[in-house]
Amino acid sequence: MDMKKHALEYASWGWAVFPVHTPKPDGSCSCHHKECNRIGKHPRISHGRNGATTDPQTISRWWDVWPDANIGIATGKESGLVVLDVDDGGEDSLAGHALPDTIEQITGSGGRHLLYSRPLDDFRYKTRVKFMPGLDSRADGGYIVAPPSLHASGQHYDWEGSSDPTEGVAPSQAPDWFLDAIREQPLDESLSTAPEWNPDGELPVNTLEMLSAIPAEDYDTWRDVGMALHYTDPADGLEVWDWWSGTAANYSADAVRKEWRNFSRRGHQVANPVTMSTVRKLAEQHGWTDPAIEHGSEVAATLLSSHQRKISEALKTHKPAKIDAPDMLPSQGLIADIAAYILSTSIRPQPRMAVAAATAFVSALAGRKYRTETGLMSNLYIAALAQSGHGKDHARKVINRLAMLAGVDDYMGGDSIASGQAVVSALSRHPSKLFMIDEFGKFLGALTGQKSAPHQRDIITKLMVLYSSAGSVYRGTEYADQKERPREDIVNPNACVYGTSVPDNFWGAMSSSEGGDGTMSRLVVINTDGQRPPRQRPAMVEPLPSLIKAIQSLANHSVGSGNLANNTPSSLDQKSQTVPMTDAVFSAWEDLDDDMTENMKDSISASIYSRVAENAAKLAMVYAVSRDYHSPVIDPEAFAWGRELALWSANTLMHNIGRNVADNQQEASHKRVLNIIKDAGQITRRDLLRKCRFLRKRELEEIIGSAMEAGDVIVENVKNERGQASTVYKSGE
């Protein structure tokens, strides 16, 4: 069957289509997930049904890549359709209700879909599950799988003979009773018939609508929803869970209450609890979209523009902006899955370090295979900082373990680097490598210090050159004896770095020269909050086979050739896939780059902020590939994640350069004293002398004197409790 031909025909009628996964001959799904419970029914593209289109070129490209893909049709506004889904028991519910003749589809399971035209009004028509026994709706935010798609039963979806749209039959107006049942009510009316909960509780107001989109029959789904409600609102979530559980044919009030007591007795896992984000994800998988957020490009552009203005305003100051650390943990994709495994097996879970390590690993696996529209590749240099004893080593150990289990050790560089030429030789053997380096601060200090040897300084030089050579060709060193030592050329080298360090060692290794010459600006710095994470009992489990399979699939993926071994030599070019940005995202990316100009006050800030847009695009691309390595797209979600992380890193760099980076011991001592005063808010002379025992009294007085002249320190005389005068130092900022 020519699936592309049918998809193009539907698009010509104004029905927005998208590719859907297909059942395989062995009964599994083309998504390769062994536990898939929606075989042949869920989208192949990362946008899901929100990526549906009528554009012939996009549709042709999709089905050229996946010629056997099932066809999804987005219902609702995109296609002007509302669909009545009739399954077991539905015919009894239809008794006495008028059903105008219209287009009818016979589903692969033997049910039927009645396709009606959507009213041209401003109401929202909901995708609902069992709004009457055996009756579902597919409307705004939903989709159907269309003929001649293949069902998991082995049967094909088909049009009913007397109402075949390919024969010219058009959808009729939907009956009023059906529209009344699925029309969006005002919020106060929609909640009037639902259970109430404490208005001071935590459940979001759209909880009931999300739950109405999720079938309650599957045990794992039922349990996860209950865990999320219990975690979020243990006082009132039971009543909501019981109400939703009652939509299932196998409902048992006793089972609901028994399981709820089990949740209370066992408690919740610390590292990766089941929260309302899980409920939202389940609802979206079943076609629900938030009515408060339309997914069109116009609104996406508005949201991005608004967020960009917020960040831009925060950055329009003479001092580096202080933006809170972003929520780094993605909701889905390979980065999320790797980070979740790292956290579940950690004694002291560090979410930021788990995401940083997972991102670095995925950036190496994606190496040479993908590039942005502007030619940026996935090579990332990430530095993750945490105090000793705060769990900074665990993520690195897990990544090494995953690489070994997946058989992708050729992507892993050595734990230490002896020389710059050693880095080049490693990339010559395999052109995409992740170098994971512990004590990264001491490593950098040895390379940049005044006493560093030439072969040590060459490591930094080579890493910087390789960073800039990604997307082009690295030309190796010319030696006199070419026969014995031929020049090593590498096409599109993808050197990735994940370094961990104690903050003091890292910042102490830096001087202003590294800030201005581009060394630091190439780093994505992930700083933990300084608090020691609470201890948990780690899960002593091996990674799921699906996680290992996902790592192998990305590592072995070759653009244009499917999942084949990536054996292209370093000296030869490998075809790479362009990861596009949506139009709204591309505009926001350009705005981000423009906004950074106002922050470039000197050579250091110019070096660091000039890289923000580049780092944001790289991070967003790696995020998109992590989510869908077949057809990644940098959409608003991916871009927002990359942008906020890149901005936070830049501001972290600028803040700490000002506080800690010094070119000599005198400057280092000066900054250390100022930091003591600044962190204290105000400090007495006696306490300052105690904290500055690393200095002689005369040296401290000289520092205080120069700081007072510069306005960095204010000195006041105040009376203590006994009425005696005391000298107090305050920060001038």
What do you see in this structure?
The protein is built from 27 helices and 22 strands. By secondary structure, it is an alpha/beta fold. It has four domains: 3-182, no CATH class; 193-285; 297-555 and 580-659, Rossmann fold; 665-731, Winged helix-like DNA-binding domain superfamily/Winged helix DNA-binding domain (Arc Repressor Mutant, subunit A). The strands form seven sheets. Strands 3, 4, 5, 6, 8 and 9 form a six-stranded mixed sheet that branches. A four-stranded parallel sheet has the order 12-15-11-16, sandwiched between helices. A hairpin with a 5-residue loop joins strand 21 and strand 22 (725-731). It is globular. The relative contact order is 0.08. The model is unreliable at 187-201, 292-323, 512-517 and 561-566 (pLDDT under 50).
